[in-house]
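Take a careful look at the sequence and tokenised backbone pasted below. I need to know what the token row says about the fold.
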Amino acid sequence: MDLAGISGLLTEIGWALLESLPPYREDEALALGEQLRQAGHDPALVAAALTQSRLRGAARGKFGPFADGMLFTATGLEQATRLSVAARHAQRFVSAGIDRVADLGCGIGADSMALATFDREVLAVERDEVTAAVATMNLRHWPEATVRCADATTTDLTGFGGAFVDPARRGETGKRLLDPRLGSPPLSFVLDLAARLPAVGVKTAPGIPHHLVPEGAEAQWISVAGEVVEAGLWFGLLARDGVRRSALVVPGDGEEASPVELSDTDLPTVGAGPVADYLYEPDGAVIRAGLVAQVAAMVGGHLVDPTIAYVTSPTLVRSPLARAYTVEDVFAFQLKTLRSWLRDRGIGRLTIKKRGTAVQPEQLRRQLKVSAAWGDAEATIVLTRVSGRQSVIAVRPITG
């Protein structure tokens, strides 16, 4: 969406049109657009309003009911921090006693919204004119927040105690960049900020390799509802003493659970051994942070293989840090053996999970030729290494 489209929606007529639209439905959008144009509305304004209606619907997963009063760009929504995660970012600045924060590369304003909600004075800087206009609208309810269309790398930060940086993390081809040194602005800019300001944080890709975490920084990986959504690097007052790597597991909307955190302080030593009664699949943020040993210690278990992020234990421990399964069988991986195992048990529906094996689940599914004629039972199998041997672990998910 261009600036003209956004500007049209910011008029009294444009905003009224947007607010009058019903919840977006793809199968009704063409007919609704035609109806609005026949009613005398400007076609460009109708297109802009319908686009915003669609984006608002898509944004509810990140912003909940707040999405219904916001504006978006497609790219801005994709890159925006979820409000539940932005609140965790803001809490770091609050805990550090930082009252004035610059949100550099603020995008559509999610982190600025969270900071302002915690009564921080916020300067939201965005160099893209359209995105800055969207951020201005989204921050209209917070007088503590000011939006400036400018280059983050040349913004005067005199008087600010902290900064949060959200770089662009896609290359010219659109491919995601895992190396923060290649972001815009790059990691070198963040390191310079950290040398000048007492509290600096930067959002980065969850695939960042551990060796790229700067000395003295805390790297935290965050998952929401089981999906790893980001990693962050925290410097100065925002980094916790003695913590190099941490994982934060945030429940999804409607889940009756609190966020749970792990860090690499006092890392236990955990070995590998045979598969026991229960198998645990650690949350993705825990795996990314390299904290699987903590989960193993928590459940009183060990790894199924020294190089694989599956934990097994004779004890059932329920935790948001790992998904638990009851182990039903374990055997060496052979196509004929696996097919016979499934057929003998009347398995007509199969879930395939894998880790540490080159087997491709969809290719294996075709080779197994699982058929409803075998029965209507359902099974979950895990393809992995057990003590260095390619194996199948038949499991049953534990719910509740």
Remarks:
- The two ends are 43 Å apart (CA to CA).
- The chain has a mean pLDDT of 93.
- Residues 43-63 form the longest helix (21 residues).
